[in-house]
Amino acid sequence: MRRLLLALPFTLLPLATGVAAHSHEHDHAHDHAEHGSLDAHEHGSAQLNVVLDGKMLHLQLDSPAMNLVGFEHAAKSDADKAKVAAARSQLEQPQALFGLSAGDCTLSKQELESPLFAEHKHEEHHDHDSEHSDIHAHYSLDCQKPEELKQLNLGELFKRFPATEKIQVQLIGPNGQQGLELTPAQPTLSF
């Protein structure tokens, strides 16, 4: 299934380019190619891949750390470390963040990845302060009643992480595939 999630952005690329053509771009003078990333690192914007396959719901959220903690450098001060810990704690609650009250879903697997979550080792991070830091959250939920899953509501995610202005969503579900942009004003996605 992880391969499916990784292939999803390429499978839905024609949908994403149509959405991207209509979204506004922030003035962002960073050269993203030098960082080896396929996705543009755009503050305020995140990506969410959703796959509902039988009783399994897979969610993959990729966001610049700026959207979730307010900075991208290694957390050195106690205040920065507290922001990272708070963001991680929020990300450990996918049912709340994605409005998953229906479907009788329980979290079966969770992976949170970011250089900011690693134990700080000065010799490893001292020259990485100028790099972009992203946060990747991968969730697998076992849903006993997947037919009751009618929508995702990212309202709580936008509320808890207000620097996130838009989320590009790619969904594969029982009704096919779709791609759209969610915002604080339009935070819901129907399956």
Explained architecture:
This protein has 191 residues and is an alpha+beta fold. It has one domain. Helix content is 28%, strand content 30%. The chain has a six-stranded mixed β-sheet. Strands 5-8 form a two-stranded antiparallel ribbon. It starts with a helix and ends with a strand.
Name the features.
191 residues; alpha+beta; six-stranded mixed β-sheet; two-stranded antiparallel sheet; 7 helices; 8 strands; 30% strand; globular
Number of strands: 8
**Major beta sheet, strand line-up:** 3-4-2-1-6-7
Shape: globular
Number of helices in the DSSP assignment = 7
Report the sheet with the most strands, covering strand number, pairing sense and barrel closure. 6 strands, mixed
Average pLDDT figure: 79
Number of domains: 1
N/C terminus separation: 19 Å
Radius of gyration: 17 Å
Question: Which percent bin holds the helix content?
Answer: 25-40%
Low-confidence stretches: 5-39, 120-130
- By secondary-structure content and strand pairing, the structural class works out as alpha+beta
Amount of beta strand: 25-35%
User: Element order, helices and strands?
Assistant: HHEEHHHEHEEHEEE
In short:
By secondary structure, this protein is an alpha+beta fold.
Secondary structure layout plus pairing:
Layout: H1 2-11, H2 13-22, E1 45-53, E2 56-64, H3 65-69, H4 78-91, H5 94-97, E3 105-113, H6 122-125, E4 134-143, E5 151-153, H7 155-160, E6 166-173, E7 176-182, E8 188-190
Parallel strand pairs: 1-6
Antiparallel strand pairs: 1-2, 2-4, 3-4, 5-8, 6-7
